[in-house]
Amino acid sequence: MDDSLQELYQAVILEHNRVPCNKCVPLSYDFHADGYNPSCGDKVSVYVNFDGDRVAALSFSGEGCAISQASASLMTQLIKNKTRLEALTIIDDICRGLSGEDVDLNKYGDVGALIGVRKFPMRIKCATMAWHTLKDAIRDA
Ligand code: ZN
Questions:
Q1: Residue ranges per structural domain of the chain
Q2: How far is the centre of ligand 1, averaged over its atoms, from the C-alpha of 139 (Å)?
């Protein structure tokens, strides 16, 4: 692999794709939304349970490329236990960062591993899809 492909498929991404976190359809949930990225064929559905204003449980289902699945997995880890407003703020920050704006994604831990998509404009939607879908799910919560 050349350097930019290696940056795209960092070990964290490959591992989250291989063994995703919180990939399941829960028996019950408060909010749900579906996302689809036609340019790559990625699909994701997210399921959210709130405890008061806090995200008590967050899971996803779907299929697609390694970037899309790893991004959804990383998202469920990062957003759990956040308040709705905190979650929306983080989602906006991360989507701006992945789209190439000057945002330090490393402050979000392993999510920083997604940074490689910046060099592959076609793949940015693979990385941002889960986050946009979660935003759809909780915007009106
Ligand atoms: Zn994709």
A1: 3-140
A2: 24
Q: Which of the 8 DSSP states describes residue 21?
A: S
Confidence category of residue 4, pLDDT binned at 50, 70, 90 = confident
Does the reported pTM lie above 0.90?
yes
Residue 35 CA to ligand 1 centre (angstroms): 12
* Mean pLDDT in residue range 104-120: 95
How do 54-63 and 42-51 pair as beta strands? antiparallel
Q: How many angstroms separate the alpha carbon of residue 77 from the centre of ligand 1?
A: 20
Handedness of CA 53, 55, 61, 62 (dihedral sign): positive
CA of 1 to the centre of ligand 1 (A): 18
CATH code that applies to domain 3-140: 3.90.1010.10
Mean pLDDT of all residues in 1-12: 86
